[in-house]
What does this fold into?
Amino acid sequence: MRILEEKGTQTAANASGSDERVKDRIRGLIFGAACANSLGGASVGLKYRDISGFRSSGITGVRDFADALAKSGVPDHKAGELLADSMLGLALADSLISTSGRFDEADLRQRFGQLLECDHFLKTSPGAACLTGLRKMVDGAEPAETGAESIHPNVAARVFAAGALPGGARSDEPIDVAIRQAKMSHGDLRAVASAAVIADSIRYFIAGGKLEDAEQVRAYVSHEFGVAEKIDERFAENWDDVAPDLDYANPPDDLPYSLINVEPTITELVPTAVGIFLIFRHDPEEAICAAARSGGDTDTVATIIGALSGAYHDASRLPERWTEKIKDREKLDEVARHLAALWT
It folds into this structure.
């Protein structure tokens, strides 16, 4: 844990608005989340073996943008289009940009309300649990403390923009924003802890944090366990199960059984997404493609992995066939540029 804290403190102190690497990592964060969300959108709800079957038959939907595969849970998905998780994340980004990095509940509530009236957003099939939680949030009602909506993983997927905040005197702290936005729609503290862990992870990578070897990986997992434990011990126990059977020094050729067919709950999806990121952390394309073929809630898993991978490496490591073809590319560039400006 001390290894992570010392390196994180040093890199954060040295990072500034003039640091081109920080700008590149923020751009990687935004494009990574969006591209991965779209890539994973083609196979939502399908089983891992079914997606692998499509792959072996010559369809490259898990490596390139594609329309929804047969029997996908998002049948209207078109190649390169953004889905609900990235649209919610961009709404959070726009809110933070408009307030110079300060969290404004009323502003975010209004922006999420606009999405609930947007036909394109609704056609991305966010799901009943997601929509119910968002509707309560927009209406100012108390969020559910039990049931599917209370642990729906959109709370962790949409938080990626918070991780781009510099913190300190320049903005609110990423963890604080993650917690506050989560509590607006989720009454279960496990969901709140999951959002805090993802935002804190992204902030660490934006500042230059490294996971070069197994020791650094273990230090990172231990540090985020501490973040989770302060919020909810139950989620900390889930986090402690992050890919325990994996050899981080020698990643497998493909996904192990423990990381496939992911259920749409934060208790399973968030540790699984981080586990996939960690074993493929040296290659962002492979990490994101692994998410897209993992099975289950692939769009949300991929969004989290894309955000982590993009923030860790920067935009230059993302395939041009994605970054050039993703829809709303100008919007993504604008968001990345304005978030990076908060560091100056």
